[in-house]
Design a protein that fits this description.
There is one protein chain. The protein has about 500 residues and is of the alpha+beta class. The chain contains 20 helices and eleven strands. The protein has helices at about 1-25, 35-55, 60-65, 75-80, 95-105, 110, 150-170, 175-190, 195-205, 240-245, 250-270, 305-320, 325-335, 340-350, 350-360, 370-380, 380-390, 390-410, 420-440, 445-470, and strands spanning about 110-115, 120, 125-135, 140-145, 215, 225-230, 235, 270-275, 280-285, 290-295, 300-305. Strands 1, 2, 3, 4 and 6 form a five-stranded antiparallel beta sheet that branches. Strand 3 and strand 4 form a beta hairpin. Helix 3 packs across helix 4, helix 12 runs antiparallel to helix 13 (about 325-335) and helix 12 packs across helix 19 (about 420-440). The longest helix has 29 residues, at about 445-470. The radius of gyration is 24 Å and the shape is globular. The termini are far apart.
Length: about 500
């Protein structure tokens, strides 16, 4: 109890200090004084980040979410909060064994012939240990919920909601309801490991025809709401370029598989993994030499309604073309209203000028992270309003988009998102929209026209993808100009 009281006081103190810094120290500072503003951002970000790390639990979860908003927040916040992925506190081995005994009805020594004392990793809600089952000799990973998470999460949610409402009063131009609503909706799902196991098996069935993707097998006899036992799979983080070099894994191939997986999830399946940070996506070489991505941590998925999914497909089609009228139309359907231009920039991580100049698949459209972050600083109030207006299922998609772009920027080691990624997205957008039209078709002739149009557009995309690949080869540099400036589907 005393620990939570101290944690609450620490949270109130850190956020109050940040509010005072912004209210007092920014008085009279011109907008172009980037040095002073950067210092204020850094001081407040470090103070709040340190508080999250010490408080643990839900505070780390919120901090990790902040660290993924690369293109929505000042870079000082992103840099400070990204370290929380590696600073989650570990539970003691004694605490872990108590949870296992309580939940599984037997001491871990009776269930496992081996159980590593040092965890493979620790996160905000749980930590994972390598083990070997006595019954079968199978090598497994055991995910064990921190003993105090269930109890403390309720208090933490109340404290975070109180702080958000207080900030609403101090800074009325900002809106934080979207963040609180997201936490309340998703936390119970993430605390239920049975649901995580079911999600894991469901996505495995959805992608059983994709040999480049794998999810761990669940051992249900050792799984319940607070313990999850699954297959142990070796590999490297998806952003570990050195691991890929050592194992002769092609980075472009990895990015292609990554974009295919999440494009299918968003545009075709309507079932999206919402926490694909590098620690949750591994890459490995199979025994037969194939590159394979391993998707971990299936605690949080977003299921899209068909109407929403098709509208989002049409939005991306408009972004790919650079069609401002269609962008406005689809954004209106998603409830964005007058902020459709800013919303388009948030989704595509491009400036409005880049989007409308030729579409986001324009090979000359670069992802200028610094420029976007500078623009985001000036429009944080508007961004918070957009996040408050849009459907809640879209917030997690934006988070997923940002995480994937962060991985791509790390692997490519430059501020650009590959045309190849957008070509993959265009492919699955086209497939989803075609299926939607075919399902609504009432005549054989209409269905034939729809399928014929799909076949022609698909052929164009395949040709564009081949020309793009050719332009990246040493002998094919001269072919770069053969790639049209943007994709028209």
């Amino acid at each position: 109890y005393q620990r939570r009281v101290r944690g609450t006081g620490r949270a109130v103190g850190s956020v109050s200090k940040a509010a005072v810094l912004y209210k007092v120290r920014t008085i009279g500072i011109p907008e172009e004084d980037k040095v002073t503003m950067s210092k204020i951002h850094r001081l407040t970000a470090e103070a709040i980040c340190n508080m999250c790390a010490v408080n643990g639990g839900l505070f780390i979860k919120v901090g990790q979410h902040i660290g993924t908003l690369d293109y929505l927040l000042p870079k000082e916040y992103v840099q400070a909060f990204k370290v929380l992925h590696d600073r989650a506190p570990e539970s003691s081995l004694e605490s872990v064994k108590k949870v296992l005994t309580s939940e599984l009805g037997a001491h871990p020594d009776e269930l496992f012939s081996e159980f590593d004392a040092v965890p493979l990793g620790s996160a905000s809600l749980a930590q994972v240990h390598r083990a070997v089952l006595r019954s079968s000799g199978s090598e497994v990973v055991v995910k064990v919920q921190h003993s105090t998470v269930q109890e403390h999460s309720k208090i933490d949610t109340i404290v975070i909601e109180f702080l958000a409402k207080a900030l609403d009063k101090i800074f009325p131009e900002f809106e934080f309801d979207w963040l609180i609503d997201t936490i309340k909706r998703n936390l119970p799902k993430e605390l239920d490991f049975v649901q995580e196991g079911q999600n894991c098996e469901h996505v495995s069935r959805l992608f059983n025809d994709s040999p480049f993707m794998k999810v761990p097998k669940i051992f249900w006899e050792y799984t319940n709401r607070r313990v999850l036992c699954m297959e142990y799979i070796r590999g490297g983080k998806v952003d570990d370029a050195e691991y890929m070099k050592q194992h002769n894994i092609n980075k472009s191939e990895v990015l292609s598989y990554l974009s295919k997986i999440f494009s299918q999830m968003i545009f075709v399946r309507g079932y999206i993994h919402c926490d694909p940070h590098p620690g949750n996506v591994m890459v490995q070489k199979t025994e037969d030499g194939r590159t394979q991505l391993v998707l971990l941590d299936h605690g949080l998925y977003q299921t899209l309604t068909d109407d929403f999914r098709i509208t989002y497909c049409k939005l991306w089609q408009a972004l790919l073309k650079g069609d401002s009228d269609s962008i406005k139309k689809q954004a209106d359907r998603l409830g964005v209203g007058k902020y459709y231009g800013l919303f388009a920039c948030m989704v595509a991580s491009r400036t409005w000028d880049d989007i409308t100049a030729g579409g986001i698949a324009d090979k000359n459209s670069n992802l200028d992270v610094n420029r976007l972050q500078e623009e985001a600083v000036r429009q944080i109030p508007q961004i918070s309003q957009v996040l408050n207006y849009i459907p809640r299922q879209l917030i997690l998609i934006l988070k997923t988009n940002d995480l994937l772009r962060g991985i791509e920027c790390t692997l490519l080691d430059r501020n650009t998102q590959g045309v190849g990624t957008f070509l993959n997205m265009a492919r699955y957008c086209l497939s989803a929209l075609t299926t939607h039209k075919l399902n609504k078709s009432t005549s054989l002739r209409r269905s034939f026209v729809i399928y014929y149009t799909f076949a022609v557009c698909l052929a164009k995309l395949k040709l564009l993808k081949f020309l793009y690949w050719l332009s990246l080869t040493r002998v094919g540099r001269w072919c770069e100009n053969l790639l049209p400036s943007h994709v028209v589907v």
